Amino acid sequence: MDAQLKELEEEIGKVPLIVQKWAKEDPALKDWVTEMDKHIWKDGKLSRQTKKIIAVCVAAALRDRHAVRAQAAGASNLGVDYDEMEEALRVTFLLAGMPAYTYGRTAIDDFMKK
Amino acid sequence: MDAQLKELEEEIGKVPLIVQKWAKEDPALKDWVTEMDKHIWKDGKLSRQTKKIIAVCVAAALRDRHAVRAQAAGASNLGVDYDEMEEALRVTFLLAGMPAYTYGRTAIDDFMKK
Amino acid sequence: MDAQLKELEEEIGKVPLIVQKWAKEDPALKDWVTEMDKHIWKDGKLSRQTKKIIAVCVAAALRDRHAVRAQAAGASNLGVDYDEMEEALRVTFLLAGMPAYTYGRTAIDDFMKK
Amino acid sequence: MDAQLKELEEEIGKVPLIVQKWAKEDPALKDWVTEMDKHIWKDGKLSRQTKKIIAVCVAAALRDRHAVRAQAAGASNLGVDYDEMEEALRVTFLLAGMPAYTYGRTAIDDFMKK
Amino acid sequence: MDAQLKELEEEIGKVPLIVQKWAKEDPALKDWVTEMDKHIWKDGKLSRQTKKIIAVCVAAALRDRHAVRAQAAGASNLGVDYDEMEEALRVTFLLAGMPAYTYGRTAIDDFMKK
Amino acid sequence: MDAQLKELEEEIGKVPLIVQKWAKEDPALKDWVTEMDKHIWKDGKLSRQTKKIIAVCVAAALRDRHAVRAQAAGASNLGVDYDEMEEALRVTFLLAGMPAYTYGRTAIDDFMKK
């Protein structure tokens, strides 16, 4: 993993496999995506942890099995608090139904520590 | 609007029209939904404002025109910071594409103050 | 509107504009789609009315503004009972969140008689 | 499982794991959700069986693997007729495409008796 | 597999299991769907290969695990070029986010030859 | 509009309003997104026109009213052939249902010349 990807890993908790593939196949694309990702995920008005909470909620609402697990793993690596995460998923429950909450809850129960 | 709904309005910034209809049509259903809503939206591990930010992001990811506008209006009433909200939507951009960001950005530009 | 489309109108309450366009542009495609549609929408194990209720619920869950209004109009033409339709949408509320119910409720309040 | 959850099981065929978790973690939330669920799923203008058919169709349209299987299992427990269920899924096919039908058909073939 | 289904297999690379079930359960429905499918998938203004590329992109955007794998397998059978397919998925990345690209990329890496 | 955005306009037919806002608010983000967009939309294994066709199909499948109209307008500016576009949308019809086709067809009938 190159230096740019290592730095990204610190920001987001887990570098997607896709970005690692692009690093070999199309380094220019990898560069733009990596810089954009680092810029968006870093601490700003909102902390990295809060952004990760949002990401899990969005992935759960979309019933996206890949993303919800990847984001939950990233949240775990960044030290996101389990109870904050679970509380956030209740908003997803209201907006997208119990099954969306289920996607999120299953992922955090598999990848985060209570 | 009855006392229970007024209290809900303070928590979430804006009571959905649907809950107001249920208050007349099916008070028992209104009661459970209102109590559940108050419980989920109130300040807890996460603030009401952070929960509203999550709600806008989820609605934007779902390309839900009704919800994204209603949540943005609620965010405005709760005094959510525009720049925090916009930063959160960038996470939605990464997870659900530029058009999802567009749904959210359009709603907050129409309903929130910069 | 040709005889085949008139017959379809009786089954489904409202022929989609698209099928009418295909009738001119590609009659063979119109024929297969029309026959398939008639076959699926007609009274069978489930009545045409129950199928229309399902269609409104599915369109609402997908946050599909075009389909939810078209299906609600078709439901009205077929004499679907408003209260049955509203009760069905509560299932959509549980499965897909309050905003999905809102899509459906708005459409039936605009297109069906209480 | 407490008395309230047992009663819910009779209405819906299968209590979601999530509600059982909430029974321990947050009994008040469990209570509102359980009462709301019982109220919505019980025989009314539409039978419990018809509501379950709608639920499977909605979950299939959303490509929701968890929900479509859970609802199909619940449908089986409530004695929903396989042929009625399959006919309903054809409406989902029209509204949401062949792959949505596939989600539903796979679930009912795994969880219901022909 | 009957002659009609064999012909369809040549057009689309892989006949869905569902159509094969309908061939036994409801031959009339199978006939309309098969004719419609052959008509839509065949070489026209766009080649069969380009249509398959579109199908993979749409299934990936919908996070549809069944469809994205089935379409990727069909693309492989029709000799779709891997690099064209991957380039197309980048459009899905822009429109529907990195996780949508991931659904597509995973499917083509499992089912197509580089 | 700066030089970079003008160049992007040539590739994609229409620069999203959002990118123009980012040009003022956050030039670094605008730069990465613009470079990534140019790279992905430019002629490659697939032509810019074919990529635009894919984009309309994906936006239609997602029932994304903003994106489907923006992409249809971009397709028109790039000289995409109406009949190719309509044929592509039939694949969306199969994968995501008639209402998804309707989203796409409505947009191209409003924004493209036959």
Molecular structure report:
- The structure is a homohexamer of 114-residue chains.
- By secondary structure, chain A is mainly alpha-helical.
- Chain A is built from seven helices and no strands.
- In chain A, helix 2 runs antiparallel to helix 3 and helix 5 crosses helix 7.
- The first copy, chain A, is elongated and about 40 Å long.
- The termini of chain A are far apart.
- At the A-B interface, helix 3, helix 4 and helix 6 of A face helix 3, helix 4 and helix 6 of B.
> Number of DSSP strands of chain A?
0
If classified by CATH, what would the architecture of the largest domain in chain A be?
Answer: Up-down Bundle
Mean pLDDT over the full residue set of chain A: 95
What is the terminal separation of chain A in angstroms? Answer: 30 Å
Q: CATH homologous superfamily name of the largest domain in chain A?
A: AhpD-like
Largest sheet features of chain A: none
Beta-strand residue percentage of chain A: under 5%
**How many helices of chain A?**
7
